[in-house]
Design brief:
The complex is a heterodimer of chains A (326) and B (369). Chain A has one domain. Helix content of chain A is 74%, strand content 4%. Chain A contains 13 helices and four strands. In chain A, strand 2 and strand 3 form a beta hairpin. In chain A, helix 3 runs parallel beside helix 6 and helix 5 packs across helix 10. The radius of gyration of chain A is 20 Å and the shape is globular. With 369 residues, chain B is an all-alpha fold. Chain B has one domain: ABC transporter involved in vitamin B12 uptake, BtuC, CATH 1.10.3470. Chain B is built from 17 helices and two strands. The two termini of chain B are 28 Å apart. Classes of the chains: A mainly alpha (326), B mainly alpha (369). At the A-B interface, helix 6, helix 11 and helix 13 of A face helix 6, helix 13, helix 15 and helix 16 of B.
Chain lengths: 326, 369
């Protein structure tokens, strides 16, 4: 895509939504709080959804079991953070980070390892058959969720934020929770890294080419399969990272969280267009903002607002905002 | 006559025919052969599942699209009956009003979901139904004034169907002729009519087009069939039949709550039964439901025994705990999709097909396989 035919309309959606609700919310400081919260939630959802959308774009595999990696990441984080009580209890942000960073790394490694096994045993035998893929990955999701229950127990586990990340910063009248700022920073870092990899490296070039035309990349001599496994594992690791972020955001984890987040991710992917990374970002931000605005304005309609949003987008662009030309 | 009833779609395997006959006879005579409340409850559950699974098969097996909102329509039917009975009172009018309202709601929802998702690609349908099912489940618990929230609704059914009603003072063949028996046979005949209707649908020209779309969407479109229209119609029909199955469930249980009709576990059961029974064969729903519901009623007991037997190994005991039976269902599901994709019916039919024999006159040749 060169600069001339940049499709700018979808990019304007998130700011437009934010401006549209401003009169309904009234006070600008509340609006700022909600908007930052929405952006933070959107960034976390994007981290989770990015892997899934790439896997779909590259290999035409829709993984309904993606949610398992989210839950897995979050549960690994409870174990790691629980073992590092000294660091999480300290009021210093740096010491907290010393606890959270290893938790993230371990969660990503575990999710990546499980992702590798998942690809080998669950997904690989059913390439090219959507029907079986949906059934099998859904089965994998259920097995994974039950195994999490076997290991960590079926109950909700609290995942308290480390001391130094609690509380809010005041900008004028607007209170912004520290953790949400951290989430935005992590999200922007991941997005930047992803964007850099995809647009500035040879690996990213191959991935994007594979999304456009898999056969052509294969016929040029690249092993698309190895590439795909790499993307699948990286996507799983990102889901694990997202799980840690999401768990800390909710401050508790339950085995069913994977299935719950799965629903959000699917809405994001449908809004963004299956396979599109930029689309996933736009979808995630829209969903995050929408969830926070409606949570404030009409709390009961929170989940329906996302579905309504998805319907509206589909009326405008039936394939999602950035459709792959396939 | 039989050929008309079965819409010319015979079991096409002697073993299968015997099995089917056995299931149907067992269901028809349950109150007389297997005494006891539990057996009757299991049989009624089988009847409900036969309709529910057969309606799902229309979508999954014949049209080739996966819906995760099938329990939503099932729940709409159950809630329709439950709400009508608790609001209007235990009359037949309430029953029909409830079913009619539920059918209208299901129709509109299925139409909306179908039009929005199926015009793009079938995979959207799976994702969107998943979102809808989750939202509907939340909605059902939130509207507690109407639905009774998490507690659900307990209600009375028309007097003729209630346990206190006596048809005759004397027991017949050792079975007291009460309202439960009448209710059971009402369910039995409803299920029979609905399954035969589904057989009629899948063997109609419309059903053939669905199969053509399943096999090759592009080619079907090229021949001139509007794929979106056919898929959406199939989704609507399937939703309506599921709604009726839900109404049957509520009528039998005289109770409905989110766990009984909306939970994702039921969705998993339905998926498993379709795959085990055989996708794309309505008969698979009958065989599968019979096998599965009976097995399920006793599987948890079996797991408990196994778990106690290995209590020396805590991690193995945790794996085998009766609370984890969903894990084993999941494993069973994945293994069936891999190694047993045509299900019981498909296996039995292919066993016969391997024996060389010219097709009999009037027998439908396997089209588009």
């Amino acid at each position: 895509m060169n600069k001339l035919d940049l499709d700018w309309k979808p990019l304007a959606l998130a700011p437009l939504l934010a401006l549209l609700v401003l009169p309904f919310i009234g006070s600008p400081s509340t609006w700022l709080t909600l908007t930052v919260a929405g952006l933070a939630m959107g960034m976390i959802i994007f981290i989770i959804a990015s892997g899934l959308t790439l896997v779909f774009g590259l290999m035409d595999v829709l993984n309904f079991g993606h949610g398992v990696f989210i839950a897995l990441g979050a549960f690994v984080a409870t174990s790691v953070l629980g073992a590092m009580g000294d660091y999480t209890g300290s009021a210093s942000l740096w010491q907290n980070l010393l606890a959270v960073l290893p938790a993230m790394v371990v969660a990503m490694l575990v999710a990546a390892g499980v992702g590798l096994a998942f690809e080998r045993f669950i997904v690989r035998p059913v390439y090219g058959n959507h029907l079986k893929q949906i059934l099998i990955t859904m089965g994998g999701m259920i097995i994974g969720e039950e195994l999490i229950k076997v290991i960590w127990g079926p109950l909700q586990i609290p995942l308290p934020l480390p001391e130094g990340m609690r509380g809010a910063l005041l900008f004028g009248d607007a209170a912004i929770e520290k953790y949400r700022l951290i989430a935005v920073v992590v999200g922007v870092l991941v997005f930047g890294l992803l964007l850099w990899t995809l647009t500035r490296t040879k690996l990213g070039l191959l991935i994007r080419a594979g999304v456009q035309d898999r056969e052509m990349v294969e016929s040029l001599g690249y092993r698309i399969h190895v590439l795909f496994i790499g993307v699948f594992v990286a996507g799983s690791a990102l889901a694990g990272l997202g799980g840690v972020m999401w768990g800390l955001y909710q401050q508790s984890v339950i085995p069913q969280m994977g299935a719950q987040v799965n629903v959000l991710i699917f809405i994001v992917l449908i809004i963004g267009g299956l396979g599109s990374t930029t689309g996933a970002l736009i979808g995630a931000l829209l969903v995050g903002l929408m969830a926070n605005y409606t949570g404030f304005l009409v709390p009961k309609a929170a989940l329906f607002s996302n579905i309504a949003l998805m319907m509206a987008i589909l009326l405008w662009r039936p394939q999602g905002v950035y459709a792959l030309s396939k | 006559m039989i050929s008309r009833l079965l819409s010319n779609d015979f079991p096409r395997s002697r073993v299968l025919a015997v099995l089917l006959l056995a299931v149907v006879l067992a269901l028809a005579l349950t109150p007389f052969i297997f005494p006891g409340v539990k057996a009757l409850n299991v049989a009624a559950k089988v009847l409900v599942f036969v309709v529910l699974v057969a309606s799902f098969d229309l979508l999954l097996g014949y049209t080739g699209i996966v819906s995760f909102a099938h329990t939503m329509f099932f729940g709409i039917g159950a809630y329709g009956v439950a709400i009508a009975f608790s609001r209007i009172g235990p009359t037949w009018g309430a029953l029909f009003a409830g079913i009619a309202a539920a059918l209208v709601l299901s129709f509109l929802l299925a139409l909306a979901i179908g039009l929005f998702s199926l015009r793009v690609r079938a995979i959207f349908f799976s994702m969107i139904t998943l979102a809808f099912a989750a939202a509907f489940q939340t909605l059902a618990s939130q509207l507690s004034e109407l639905t009774g929230g998490e507690d659900g609704l307990t209600f009375k059914v028309p007097e003729v169907l209630s346990p206190s009603f006596e048809l005759a003072a004397e027991p017949f063949l050792g079975v007291s002729l009460d309202g439960r028996l009448i209710c059971y046979y009402l369910l039995f005949f409803t299920a029979a009519v609905l399954v035969l209707a589904l057989l009629r649908i899948v063997n109609s020209p419309f059903g053939r087009v669905l199969q053509a779309i399943r096999e090759n969407e592009f080619r079907a479109e090229a021949i001139g069939y509007r794929v979106v229209v056919y898929r959406t119609t199939s989704a609507i029909l399937s939703a309506l039949f599921a709604t009726l199955a839900g109404a049957m469930l509520a009528l039998w249980l005289r109770y409905n709550g989110p766990e009984t009709s909306l939970s994702f576990e039921i969705m998993l059961d339905v998926l498993l039964i379709v795959v085990i029974g055989g996708m794309g064969t309505i008969y698979g729903a009958v065989i599968g439901s019979g096998l599965f519901v009976v097995a399920q009623s006793y599987l948890q007991d079996l797991l408990r025994l196994a778990s106690e037997a290995v209590s020396g190994l805590p991690w193995l005991a945790a794996l085998l705990s009766p609370d984890r039976w969903l894990l084993w269902l999941g494993v069973l599901f994945v293994l069936s999709v891999y190694y047993f994709p045509t299900g019981v019916v498909g296996k039995l039919r292919s066993m016969r097909a391997s024996a060389p024999r010219p097709p009999a006159a009037g027998e439908p040749r396997p089209v588009l396989k």
